[in-house]
Amino acid sequence: MNNGFRQGIQWVLDNYSSYQVAKDLSINARTVNRYQNGETPLENMTLSTAEKLYNYYLIELSKMDRNEIFARALSCLNQIGLRRLEKGTPSIERKYLSDLRIKPMTTYFRAHKAIMQYATHFDEVDLSLIDQATEYIGTLDSTNYSDDALAENYIIYFSKETVSLEKRLKIS
Predict the structure, then answer these.
(1) Which of 11, 12, 92, 110 could serve as 78's disulfide partner, Cβ 3.0–4.6 Å?
(2) What are the distances in angstroms from CA 166 to CA 1, 82, 99, 105, 159?
């Protein structure tokens, strides 16, 4: 299972209840729950189930508005920062989160540049997180590549993604 495919599946498992996934995709809820709690490794997932989960991910990704996209992408960068920034260095969240609302594109690229200084130290988890951030930003259409201010709800999406990533990173 390639990394992007796996990431999309894991995102669905981290962000939706087994009941919701089972209902929406006609998959047994207990089966979904075993993947969510790590009882069954993703490598043992049938191709049919994996395809359903990944396609669900793509659909959900396409529904995100730019507030959610920028906030979730910055959360991914923040997780890398928590793993890689030197002690005493302000976190990505602390340094960039409030600016994200005012100038999202500029702020995201500044945070991305700050994180990429540590790229030589990235491991598989960091690469997965940078891929996820890039995938989020990649869903923006050209009209949304701007510094138009975000709505105040961006902070909720940042928090949701942070909780989801912390859960996933703890399991890994």
Answers:
(1) 92
(2) 22, 11, 23, 24, 10
pTM value is 0.84
The confidence band for 5, taking pLDDT boundaries of 50, 70 and 90, is: confident
**pLDDT (tens digit, 9 = 90+) per residue, 35-74?**
999 899 999 999 999 999 999 999 998 889 999 999 999 9
CB 54 within 8 A of CB 9: yes
Q: Phi/psi class of residue 27: alpha, beta or left (left: φ > 0; alpha: ψ in -120 to 50)?
A: beta
Round to whole Å and give the CA distance between 152 and 167.
25
% pLDDT > 70, the chain = 98
Note whether 21 and 34 are within 8 A (CB). Answer: no
pLDDT of residue 172 exceeding 60, the answer is no
Count, residues in the chain: 172
Match 């981290």 to its residue by tokens.
14
Give CA–CA dist 150/63, Å, rounded. 16
**How many angstroms separate the CA atoms of 36 and 32, rounded?**
6
Residue 60 · residue 164 · CB < 8 Å: no
User: 155, 75 in Cβ contact below 8 A?
Assistant: no
Contact 111, 77 (CB under 8 A): yes
